[in-house]
Amino acid sequence: MKVLLINGSPNIHGCTYTALEEVAKTLEEEQIETEIFHIGSKPVRGCMDCGVCYKFPGKCAYGDDTVNEAIELAEKADGLIFGAPVHYASASGAMTSFLDRFFYCGQGFPYKPGAAVVSLRRAGSTASLDQLNKYFTISSMPIVSSQYWNMVHGNTPEEVKQDIEGMQIMRTLGRNMAWLLKCIEAGKNTGIPLPKKEERIFTNFIR
């Protein structure tokens, strides 16, 4: 089994990476393969609702950033963890643009466990987690939690490592993700099918 961890910070080895690395180490201890993917520091386009991904599912028309590469990796992964820095009490703009297209073009990743992690100096953590968790709840993805909200505090990687509670939260998240993945695998091995899927209904307040 494998978990893809996506680093939504412009800093490849910054605070967000430090948190994700702690989760990844714990997953590896649980015999779960991991990969940390960096979305990069270049601009990430927002979704333009062009509709190309309807014709070519899993592929965004814009190929000049890392979204398509991440979708391809996510399709092969069993679980997904997204890490983002907090900017103005929400996930960074680049990560938001990335995830809008990642989930829309990838058509969600149903039944794959997902988790969000945020790093920050002081405040805005729970608002950012609420924002990120909504991607899972609209995609039939089980959310993996920890012993507290998935956050670390610090201005530098060294300060993040001094957040001993935050680092423990990351390790607990890793163990909880490993446990759920193993439970899902055990269910598959005993013949438990995925939930029955109905044909999708789309409505608005007029029709």
Layout: helices, strands, pairs:
Elements: E1 2-7, H1 15-29, E2 33-38, H2 52-55, H3 67-76, E3 79-87, E4 90-91, H4 93-105, E5 114-120, H5 125-137, E6 151-153, H6 157-162, H7 164-189
Parallel strand pairs: 1-2, 1-3, 3-5, 5-6
Antiparallel strand pairs: 3-4
Describe this structure in words.
- The chain is of the alpha/beta class and 207 residues long.
- 42% of the residues lie in helices and 16% in strands.
- It has 7 helices and 6 strands, in the order βαβααββαβαβαα.
- The chain has helices at residues 15-29, 52-55, 67-76, 93-105, 125-137, 157-162, 164-189, and strands at 2-7, 33-38, 79-87, 90-91, 114-120, 151-153.
- Helix 1 crosses helix 7 (164-189) and helix 3 packs across helix 4 (93-105).
- The protein is globular, with a radius of gyration of 17 Å.
- The mean pLDDT is 96.
State the secondary-structure class. alpha/beta
Distance between the termini: 43 Å
State the helical fraction.
Answer: 40-55%
Mean pLDDT: 96
The helix count comes to 7
